[in-house]
Design a protein that fits this description.
The protein is an all-alpha fold. Helices cover 63% and strands 0% of the residues. The N terminus is likely disordered.
Length: 373
């Protein structure tokens, strides 16, 4: 199926992956954590929701929870073992995403370290316990499978099996599962333009992703939900009020923004040199547009940029060593700044819940003292 990989090459992937794993070890503090936890409990007690049973001042409205599997897993991990398990699982998913993107090509050790660390820093502020962790891992796996098929290193039948499994999990953990069919459609278009030999595989992959998207509790309603969500988020009360929907350029200067721009510059440079896989460049270009419109999309571009860059098979040993040293130094500096809490309280290292984010102390006091009135 897959060709054996060089033992030495793993060093080039280990540094960026370890940086991502370290940056993911932060206390839980996202605003929607408890809502997702409660949704998981509700699903276990009442089954898959169709209407919002928590509304008290209005008629029940439809509730399409495409993240149901994530919510159930979150609730069970926190309640059965502890918050640390949810944090470790998220770190593992983020690590898998970057590792698979890095191993989809054949860049030398130094260049792998360089582009991988840039990606790790670019996504550093997004590595929390959220459903996006599944999208990060599954997108990395999808890029790996497609790249290996186009390199002739993975048989078509196994590729279709993997793509189907990826899409089934994706359609039940996060609404961005629509990326799967979209990328396979782009694959088909590029094969047509290049008159490639894997046109049938691309068509089959698209059909598999579409079919597997229907394997969710809501059927066609769930398949179309990403379109509904897009309309709600980009037209109405949500517009301009959700931080993650703002452009990264509106978030102010940060190491993450610099790394984001470095990834874009590397992508453009490779394109002008006409190196690498055209399909992976198309993926990177499409997700770069998304990344400059909303900061939540930066991880999508980071993975695609990494996959495209490593497909260029960079050598240049001397430059590679310089890049490796600079990238490793940047990784250590970024990790240190993160560890001492340079940016905000949301970036605090730890394997527990950040109680200062939720007012848990005050809530416990009210429950214990039971004040009257």
């Amino acid at each position: 199926m897959l060709q054996p990989m060089s033992r030495r090459a793993w060093l080039g992937w280990a540094v960026p992956v370890l940086v991502v794993a370290f940056l993911s070890m932060r206390e839980i503090g996202s605003a929607d954590f408890w809502w997702q936890w409660a949704a998981g409990r509700h699903i276990l007690e009442n089954g898959i929701p169709w209407f919002d049973a928590w509304l008290t001042t209005a008629e029940p409205r439809p509730w399409i929870e495409m993240r149901w599997l994530y919510c159930v897993g979150l609730y069970l991990s926190v309640e059965s073992v502890g918050p640390w398990l949810a944090i470790v699982c998220a770190a593992a998913l983020y690590s898998i995403g970057l590792a698979t993107a890095l191993t989809s090509g054949r860049a030398s050790l130094g260049w792998s370290v360089g582009i991988g660390v840039a990606a790790a820093i670019a996504v550093g502020r997004r590595l929390s316990v959220r459903p996006e962790a599944f999208t990060f891992a599954l997108l990395g796996l999808l890029l790996f499978v497609i790249a290996r098929v186009r390199q002739g290193k993975l048989e078509a039948k196994w590729a279709l099996v993997w793509i189907g499994l990826i899409q089934i999990v994706w359609a039940n953990t996060h609404a961005l599962f629509a990326i799967g069919p979209f990328f396979c459609a782009l694959w088909f278009i590029v094969e047509v333009l290049q008159r490639g030999s894997r046109l049938r595989v691309a068509v089959a992959a698209f059909l598999v992703t579409v079919f597997c998207s229907f394997i969710n509790p809501y059927g066609i309603t769930g398949v179309l939900y990403p379109l509904t969500l897009f309309g709600e988020l980009h037209g109405g009360a949500y517009t301009g009020n959700i931080v993650e929907l703002k452009s990264p350029f509106a978030m102010g200067f940060s190491p993450s923004l610099v790394a984001h721009l470095l990834l874009a510059a590397a992508t453009v440079y490779c394109a002008f040199r006409k190196r690498g896989d055209l399909l992976l460049f198309v993926f990177a270009a499409a997700t770069f547009y998304l990344s400059i419109t909303a900061v939540r999309n930066v991880p999508l571009f980071a993975l695609c940029a990494v996959a495209y860059f490593v497909s260029c098979a960079w050598e240049a040993p001397r430059a590679s060593r310089v890049v490796s040293i600079l990238a490793s130094s940047a990784a250590l500096a970024f990790a240190y700044l993160f560890a001492i809490g340079t940016w905000s309280i949301e970036d605090r290292l730890g394997l527990t819940i950040n109680e200062s984010r939720y007012g848990l102390v005050a809530a416990r006091a009210l429950v214990e003292e039971k004040p009257g009135g």
